[in-house]
Specification:
The chain has four domains: 196 residues, Ribonuclease H-like superfamily/Ribonuclease H (Nucleotidyltransferase, domain 5, 2-Layer Sandwich); 95 residues, GIY-YIG endonuclease (3-Layer(aba) Sandwich); 128 residues, no CATH class; 73 residues, no CATH class. The chain is elongated, with a radius of gyration of 34 Å. The protein is α+β, with helices and mostly antiparallel strands and 557 residues long. Strands 1-4-3-2-5-6 form a six-stranded mixed sheet. The protein has 18 helices and 16 strands. 37% of the residues lie in helices and 17% in strands. Helix 5 packs parallel to helix 7, helix 5 packs across helix 8 and helix 11 runs antiparallel to helix 18.
Length: 557
């Protein structure tokens, strides 16, 4: 085997795997590979020369170089370009003997990053040779100096050829269309590009792998604002020139999340947000739940104009059963005073509340008229339209006796406070009857009502179950969490803080945090250990069924 393999720094410590892609670049092992071939297609052409250089932390760890007998003729054009003749390749080893040494030099994909200039070309030839001989394809993460140069120096050079970049970046090695010299030149170009990238805050492997997609962003010059962001859970705040908060967000990895705004985030308002941003602040949190809770509270406190959630919670609504009235009915309201009746919600919108009200009225014959009837008022008025159509009771006109209507209200109260089957069962029977009768449009409406009822009751069950726990302390993978009346106690909360005010129905600005905490408890039930609970903490024995929203899977009429 006519190869020269040299290793430097053999006494260096063995590198650990990339536990996170935020591995500092000085700790990353790069292996830059360059191939010479008999042509441009791995399907019909073969490798004639392999060159590779291993590099980490400013030091060359080794080189590998060998000619390869392709088992085929070398085209004259290739000989003119590279200077490699058939006579040079006849004594060289075949690729079967080269691959094991090359794979050993590359090292495992968990600890090595594969580099190259137009690296896809070289990898395509290597993968073709590997798969033809029963090896798996290369799984290494890849860094392409051509792609990096396109993002970092495209405006400074006439083209992105390796020789052009080498001259422009003043690297000492000149590419000459031979594998080892070109691999050395590529490595030197990579090192020069990494210095350029550092000015944009590219300090870790994840930053480097993402950079080719970021530089094309019109606000890419502001990437440097992300340089101090850690790779930990937390909240981040975009601020304008005057220091006003434009947007608040949460992340399990602050650095990765914020930098994603400069690449793959396609939301319509993101370009305007980045144009106005002059600073990015952050706060590290102990765990993702703390980050989610802080985000919600900061949005309510600061009211950033780019946060959609600032607007959504203001549109929340409730369904109210007006128990203080003589003959209670359902209504959609925006607030839930404790003395106004029984409330379900808050729900995401007035439309969602109206759908739920319609669903409950379809399951139970509650009166639908809006007349207010005093305790001494007569009951001799005309029946309302819904009563005439036999879809609602009519206590207002005396058609439905007061005792009979009281039983209907009692049934509705039980249904809205835990016995969801009292609503779901009649709607399921109605859905089955409509499908049997081939009344498919009405069946689709009933299915939507079923989904609305099941979703609202499950939402209410989550909130009620959490608030009944009182003071709850749990240990989990990220540490200890204390929850009082459904609200997370954060390190900077006042010592006298006592949680929410204990109302039976949460306010519109409280429910998002309650649901966030309840869902976190449900998701992590297997990994959490209860330390303290002053109330009742239990999961429902049977979950409510889930119904698909409206789809086009019911036949048309």
């Amino acid at each position: 085997m006519t190869s020269a393999v040299s290793l430097a720094g053999s006494g260096a410590a063995v590198q650990r795997g990339f536990e996170e892609l935020g591995t500092p670049l000085h700790a990353v092992t790069f292996v830059v590979v360059d191939l010479e071939t008999t042509g441009g297609s791995p399907a019909t052409c073969a490798i004639t020369e392999v060159g590779a250089v291993k590099y980490r932390g400013g030091a060359c760890l080794g080189e590998l170089h060998t000619l390869v007998n392709p088992g085929a003729a070398v085209p004259p054009l290739i000989t003119v370009l590279t200077g490699i003749t058939e006579a040079m390749l006849i004594p060289a080893p075949p690729i079967d003997e080269v691959l094991p040494a090359l794979l050993e030099f590359l090292g495992p994909s968990a600890t090595t990053v594969l580099g190259g200039h137009n690296v896809r070309f070289d990898v395509s030839f290597l993968d073709a040779a590997l798969t033809a001989r029963g090896y798996p394809r290369l799984a290494h993460r890849r860094v392409d100096t051509a792609a990096l140069a396109r993002r970092l120096v495209r405006d400074e050079v006439p083209n992105l050829r390796l020789a052009t970049l080498a001259r422009h970046l003043r690297v000492p090695t000149e590419p000459v269309h031979r594998a080892l010299p070109d691999a050395r030149a590529t490595l030197e170009v990579l090192h020069a590009l990494l210095e350029r990238a550092g000015r944009l805050g590219v300090l870790g492997l994840d930053d480097l792998l993402e950079l080719p997609r970021m530089r094309a962003h019109p606000s890419a010059g502001k990437l440097a604002l992300t340089a101090r962001l850690p790779r930990r859970p937390g909240v981040y705040l975009f601020r304008d020139r005057a220091g006003r908060v434009l947007y608040v967000g949460k992340a399990t990895n602050l650095r990765t999340r914020v930098r994603s705004y400069f690449s793959g985030d396609t939301r319509r308002k993101v370009p305007q947000l980045l144009r106005e941003t002059e600073a990015i602040d952050h706060r590290v949190c102990a765990h993702p739940l703390e980050a989610a809770v802080r985000e919600l509270r900061l949005i309510r406190e600061l009211q950033p104009r780019f946060n959609r959630r600032l607007k959504t919670w203001r549109s929340y609504a409730y369904v109210r059963l007006t128990l203080p009235e003589r003959f209670p009915r359902l209504s959609v309201v925006r607030s839930a005073p404790p003395d106004a009746g029984l409330h379900l919600g808050p729900l995401p919108s007035v439309a969602a509340a109206q759908l739920l009200r319609d669903a409950v009225e379809a399951a139970l014959p509650l009166r639908r008229c809006r007349r207010r009837i005093g305790l001494r008022a007569g009951l001799d008025g005309p029946p309302c339209l819904a009563a005439q159509l036999h879809v609602a009771a009519c206590p207002c006109s005396g058609v439905t006796p007061a005792s009979e209507y009281a039983a209907i209200v009692a049934r509705a109260t039980r249904a809205l406070t835990g016995e969801g089957a009292l609503l779901l069962a009649p709607l399921e029977r109605r859905l089955a009857a409509l499908v049997d009768a081939e009344r498919f449009e009405e069946a689709a409406t009933t299915r939507d009502q079923l989904a609305a009822v099941a979703g609202a009751l499950e939402r209410q069950r989550l909130v009620d179950g959490l608030r009944q726990a009182g003071r709850l302390v749990v240990d989990g993978p990220d540490g200890r969490v204390e929850i009082v009346d459904g609200r997370v106690v954060l390190p900077d909360d006042a010592p006298t803080w006592r949680g929410l005010d204990g109302r039976a129905v949460p306010a519109r600005d409280e429910v998002d945090e309650l649901l966030e905490v309840a869902r976190w408890l449900r998701r992590g039930a297997a990994s959490l250990r209860v330390v303290t609970v002053t109330g009742t903490l239990a999961s429902p024995r049977v979950r409510l069924p889930r119904y698909a929203p409206r789809r086009r899977d019911l036949p048309d009429r």
